[in-house]
Specification:
The chain is an alpha/beta fold and 206 residues long. The chain has helices at 11-27, 37-44, 63-66, 86-99, 113-124, 130-139, 152-173, 175-182; strands at residues 51-55, 74-78, 103-109, 187-193, 200-202. 46% of the residues lie in helices and 13% in strands.
């Protein structure tokens, strides 16, 4: 039996919503109406998010506020360093196969502490507490050798972008990720949240 077609915005429409929401966030024109009981009752019957966000746990980067999204609009997975692990993969698989969100965003942010810790391990042989080190080790494969002339700030900025791209590549390398992209059922983008300005910068595909 064919799966019923998902009712909701396309990936491009979902991306436009996120971009528009971030613009409202930047100018202080966010939509924050009081929730009606009818809205809560409708949400109790099920969720129909239009996008899935894999973001960092940093308290300064809440996706719902950054994109001015309401309850039930975003399926959010947060973990330090926006790393891709088996547990995260399970959550994303649920979003794709059950919720059928057409748009996936890997949202990093400038000054990420997890990425900075990975740089310390890579260049200074720093070791962190055991479980933190496990997380840091997931970031290391995505970090190239940087120009030694880069300042620490510039190197961290480059590393944050590399880490986002690394997570995107890992998601796309899964069998389900490949199939959904090939069949046009999913689009995925990397993005960086600028903490000082509040702007979300979407990365190019290069």
């Amino acid at each position: 039996m064919a799966r019923p077609k998902r009712v909701g915005p396309s990936a491009d429409e979902a991306l436009a919503r996120l971009v528009a929401g971030n613009r409202r966030f930047l100018v202080g024109a966010t939509h924050r109406p009081t929730l009606r009981r009818e809205t809560l009752a409708d949400l109790a019957r099920g969720q129909r998010p239009y996008a899935t966000i894999l973001g960092c746990s940093d308290s300064r980067v809440p996706p719902e506020q950054v994109f001015d999204a309401g309850l039930g609009e975003l399926f959010v997975v947060r973990v330090a360093g926006n790393v891709f692990s088996p547990e995260v993969a399970g959550s994303l698989q649920y979003a794709g196969s059950h919720l059928e969100t057409p748009l996936f965003i890997v949202l990093g942010h400038d000054g990420c502490g997890a990425v900075d810790a990975a740089l310390a391990t890579k260049y200074e042989n720093a070791r962190h507490r055991s479980r933190i080190q496990i997380l840091v080790d997931d970031i290391l494969p995505g970090l190239p050798e940087f120009d030694p002339g880069l300042s620490p700030q510039a190197r961290l900025a480059r590393a944050v972008e590399c880490n986002v791209r690394w997570t995107v590549r890992q998601i796309l390398s899964t069998p389900e990720g490949r199939v959904r992209v090939e069949k046009g059922r999913m689009k995925i983008y990397g993005a960086i949240y600028e903490i000082e300005t509040g702007r979300v910068r979407f990365l190019s595909d290069d």
